[in-house]
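Fold this sequence, please.
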Amino acid sequence: MLNFITQAFAQDAAAVPPAAGPLAGIMNFLPIILIFIVFWVIVIRPQQKKLEEQQKMIKALQRGDRIVTSGGIHGKIVKLEGDEHLIVEIADGVEVKIGRSHVNALEAKPEPVSAEKK
């Protein structure tokens, strides 16, 4: 019986071919690498682009822009207070101070006044 077990192990070892060269190690990790690349292209890269566009929009805010905050409040920028805060009019005579980072979207840019209208 002991002889049979040794022959079984010997047959099993002979059935598995040895690793074929230096590329065998890389080929084992190839599916994981491909999954990471696909994940980066589908998820990470678009998210980075969206974040970059959001930062550009926040830096370009000006007095008179109509905005939507992250809380869903619509208003018009009345005053810029430094680099971090805005004074936003949300109703006639009602002004609130918010952080620039809480601006979610730019609703509309005001049209510049032309020389003919003056």
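Residues 27 and 62 are 54 Å apart (CA to CA). The first strand starts at residue 66 and ends at 69.
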